[in-house]
Structure formats: C-alpha cells, structure tokens
C-alpha cells in the first residue's frame, strides 16, 4: 500500500489526460518513500459511464479519488501526503476547471484491520 483509485466521468476522457495524472500521483507517493514503500504503490483509474451529476442539465464532470493506506502513519504524514496529492489533482485539472463544470474530491481510507498481501515487487527496491 498505498493504493490510489480515481473514478472519473467519461466526459473527461478526451481532455483529462488520466494516464498523466496517474504518473503525477505515483511521483508524489514515490517522493515519500520513507512514508510509503515504493513497491506497494498502486494507482488506477475507473472511467464512469453511468452517472448523474447535480441536476443533469449540463455536461457536468467529476473526479473522485481515494487514497487507501494501512495504519501506522502519523497524522502529519497523512495530511502532508493528502495535501500534496489533492494539489496535484487540482493543478492537473486547472485548465479544464476554467472551461467547464467540474467537481474534484478526494478521501483518505485507512485500514485498521489486517490486510492480506502477497507481493514480490518490494524486493526490487531493497537492493
């Protein structure tokens, strides 16, 4: 962990550069290698085809992100990482935000129970 999941409306596909956003997100998390193990970082996007935003009268768009992490980080570490990630999201969509109706949101989900993992990617970064 961490896992970063973006849900976005399909009306952003053409201009949203979602692959570019995922790279920026990973860069933010990789830069915090002392907080998040690089081998555990996952980011993904889910394009939404069935949705309704507000009253449905406009071509409204939205992006909702979730950062899922295991327990063990300080409140300061979580806040700093979430602030940095949300800043990246806002910056990434700044030009679209000026041109169209767009809602951006993000949540932090911290697991308090054990998670089950099987991952040999970590070994690549321990060398």
Automatic annotation (TrEMBL):
<dbReference type="InterPro" id="IPR004220">
    <property type="entry name" value="5-COMe_2-OHmuconate_Isoase"/>
</dbReference>
<protein>
    <submittedName>
        <fullName>5-carboxymethyl-2-hydroxymuconate delta isomerase</fullName>
    </submittedName>
</protein>
<dbReference type="InterPro" id="IPR014347">
    <property type="entry name" value="Tautomerase/MIF_sf"/>
</dbReference>
<dbReference type="GO" id="GO:0008704">
    <property type="term" value="F:5-carboxymethyl-2-hydroxymuconate delta-isomerase activity"/>
</dbReference>
<dbReference type="Pfam" id="PF02962">
    <property type="entry name" value="CHMI"/>
</dbReference>
<keyword id="KW-0413">Isomerase</keyword>
């Amino acid at each position: 962990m961490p896992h970063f999941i973006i849900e976005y409306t399909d009306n952003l596909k053409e201009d949203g550069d979602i692959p570019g956003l995922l790279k920026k997100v990973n860069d933010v998390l990789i830069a915090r290698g002392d907080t998040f193990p690089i081998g555990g970082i996952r980011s993904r996007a889910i394009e939404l085809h069935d949705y309704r935003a507000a009253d449905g009268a406009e071509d409204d768009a939205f992006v909702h992100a979730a950062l899922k992490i295991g327990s063990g980080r300080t409140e300061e570490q979580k806040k700093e990482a979430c602030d940095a990630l949300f800043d990246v999201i806002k910056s990434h969509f700044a030009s679209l935000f000026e041109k169209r109706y767009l809602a951006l949101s993000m949540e932090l989900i911290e697991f308090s129970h054990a998670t089950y993992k099987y991952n040999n990617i970590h070994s690549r970064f321990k060398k």
